[in-house]
Automatic annotation (TrEMBL):
UniProt cross-references to SMART domains, sorted A to Z: EFh
Keyword Magnesium belongs to the record: no
Cell compartments where the protein resides: Golgi apparatus lumen
GO MF, any single term: calcium ion binding
Record's keyword terms, sorted: Calcium, Glycoprotein, Golgi apparatus, Metal-binding, Repeat, Signal
Record lineage: Eukaryota, Metazoa, Chordata, Craniata, Vertebrata
Protein name, as recorded: 45 kDa calcium-binding protein
Domain EF-hand: start-end pairs: 89-124, 128-163, 224-259, 279-304
GO BP term (any one): calcium-ion regulated exocytosis
Length: 353
């Protein structure tokens, strides 16, 4: 019969063994570190030009940027506004913004003040892209010579898609055939066209840091902005005249409407695009949008566009029709400016003061 001391030692050893087994099971069963997975996904995403460009009125696929008003009003502070935030905190943030826009301190915002603010917030998005580009450029410039070749980029891109980087690099150096699926090859072909466009004369297929910025963010280069506009018109232009009619611009995306909710979404889509075409993009109101008109519309640093945008933003919330915005109006129409609706704004606005 075991002594009490021997029994306790045996029990302790058994407990330790079971604890070790459970720990090992947890390690092997636990999914890969989520932060590592996020970094891997982020790294892959960084190698592709973003689908969405902050502060630009239209997406790369020709859709209207529905967050544009929020982006040019909030700039880098946009993430701080959401429906889950404390309403009183969002109110205070809006009051701070109002006071920054109101530079002459007359307690109302004019179109000129809003124009200046829009340009300032757009520049914030530009500077954010510049800083991110520095990181992305270092990632694809392994030899640090200040230039990235198409092959260097292609290797990193395919490695991000799960291909073996060393194997791909070896095959490219020795001109061997790459076994790439059709979808990935199509993406590569489109990226190479874009690479050529970002390569300033004389073309050498080597991109500097500034050219790489234009490759990822066409809004930073007039030439790349022109290329982006060409691509959008090519996708929407049905008769090949390199111009857009309102019927071409509002044509529904490919697909069928399956239910009433989808029909309502499509109706909204058509209505919004028709309004934008007729009131904003078609500058001379002749029923035709030329490449030049669309390019002017797409240019985020166009001061004339910023002034028109300022006037439109004021008109949405200008309840007393004095062509200015007061604080109460901005708070009441907070959802338009920030994407976050403030509840009971009228009851609380004076309390905040």
């Amino acid at each position: 019969m075991l002594s009490r001391q021997a029994f306790l030692c045996t029990l302790g050893s058994l407990y330790f063994s079971l604890l070790l087994i459970f720990l090992l099971m947890d390690v092997y069963a636990r999914p890969a570190n989520s932060s590592v997975l996020r970094e891997k996904g982020k790294e892959e995403q960084e190698l592709l030009p973003p689908d969405h460009l902050n502060g630009v009125k239209m997406e790369l696929d020709g859709h209207l940027n529905r967050d544009f008003h929020h982006e040019v009003f909030l700039g880098k502070d946009r993430d701080g506004f959401d429906d889950d935030s404390e309403p009183s905190r969002n109110r205070r943030k809006l009051m701070v913004i109002f006071n920054k826009v109101d530079i002459n301190r007359d307690k109302k915002i004019s179109a000129k003040e809003m124009q200046r603010w829009i340009m300032e917030k757009t520049d914030e998005h530009f500077q954010e892209a510049v800083e991110e580009n520095k990181i992305h450029f270092r990632a694809v410039d392994p030899d640090g010579d200040g230039h990235v070749s198409w092959d260097e980029y292609k290797i990193k891109f395919l490695a991000g898609k799960g291909f073996d980087e060393k194997e791909i690099a070896q095959k490219i150096r020795t001109n061997q055939e790459l076994k790439i699926d059709e979808e990935t090859q199509e993406v590569l072909d489109n990226l190479k066209d874009r690479w050529y466009q970002a390569d300033n004369p004389p073309p050498d297929l080597l991109l500097s840091e500034q050219e790489f910025l234009s490759f990822l963010h066409p809004e930073h280069s007039r030439g790349m902005l022109h290329f982006m506009v060409q691509e959008i018109i090519r996708d929407l232009d049905q008769d090949g005249d390199k111009k857009l009619t309102v019927s071409e611009f509002i044509s529904l995306p490919v697909g069928t409407v399956e239910n009433q909710q989808a029909q309502d979404i499509d109706d909204d889509w058509v209505r919004d695009r028709r309004k934008e075409f007729q009131e904003v993009i078609d500058a001379n109101h002749d029923g035709i949008v030329t490449m030049e008109e669309l390019e002017e519309y797409m240019d985020p640093m166009n001061e004339h566009n910023a002034l028109n945008e300022a006037r439109q933003m004021i008109a949405v919330a200008d309840e007393n029709q004095n062509h200015h915005l007061e604080l109460e109006e901005i708070l009441k129409y907070s959802e338009y400016f920030t994407g976050s609706k403030l509840m009971d704004y009228a009851r609380n606005v004076h309390e905040e003061f």
